[in-house]
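Researcher: Good morning. I'm working through a list of sequences from a screen, and I'd like to move beyond sequence-only analysis. For each chain I'm collecting a predicted structure so we can compare shapes side by side. This is the next one on the list. No need for commentary yet; just the structure.
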Amino acid sequence: MSYTLLIAAGLFAVVAGANDGSSVLSAGLGPSGTRPLVSLAIFLFALVIGPWLLFGTSVATTLAHGLVPFSGPGTDRFVLAATISAMVVVFGLVRAGLPTSLTLALVGAIAGAGLGAGLPLRGGELAMILLVGLAAPVASALLAFVISPLALRASSGARIGGRLIVWHRAAFVLQCLAYSANGGQKMLALFAVAAGAASGGVVRDPWYLALSLPLLFGLGVLLGIRNVSARLGRGILAVRLRHAAVAETCSFAVVMAAGLAGVPLTMSQSVAGALVGAGLSESRTRVRWHEVTRMAGAWGATLPASIALAALAGLVARAA
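Model: Good morning. Structure tokens for this chain:
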């Protein structure tokens, strides 16, 4: 067991909570009236039962073994290089005012660390991840454009309909489950490598990982919870309850499909695409296109930056 990598994986889980947790919770907290701690409890419960009882760990296996065949001596050093590189890229972009995807950063960092280590990169797997990543916001936007009129009719009148509230709450639960089947497993992949639970090309999910990861993730959410309301104010859309319900439904469908196929996918990309589609279904002016451009720029910069930094770190680890 690599204790250095284990500590880095724990820090990564906290960072994921602060970054991903805010992205998932922000679409629904403001307009729904749901208490943040209740939403957080649902989210953490989904992280426990998703990989352990419902969906398996196919995405974690892809991250741990599918991109680069890390094995043998030096594995811990190279995975540590990828982990640190991904966090550095995300922190750097956030400091520059460009919040981005931790999943995308980790995918790039794993590929870069493998290149720096002189290991074969499975280009087909990387191409598939990139293709799905490009298609996800488009698919979410199209789906949201189609179903948004249903949400608009459900919210018509002076009082928001009860059916829309039920829709929103059910969709939020489904969205949390989709995250546990996909993006949430990046933390599991790192912990499994550090704890020796990623042998034989398969990532296992022992009970101590299933319980410890949500606790660290929840700590990260609590540390970053103040950013949730700020993101609501400067997001790509002035989110109302109907938008939240549509975004959660669409992101669930897209992210869950990718997770069941074992393809890592960023939840924030699907949520953003769905919000754009929901806004366009009402009026083009509802969408804050400047924010959309900023987000797209951050996503575009994340992959090459993480590959380059991790490749350098992999070379250093190889020489050590």
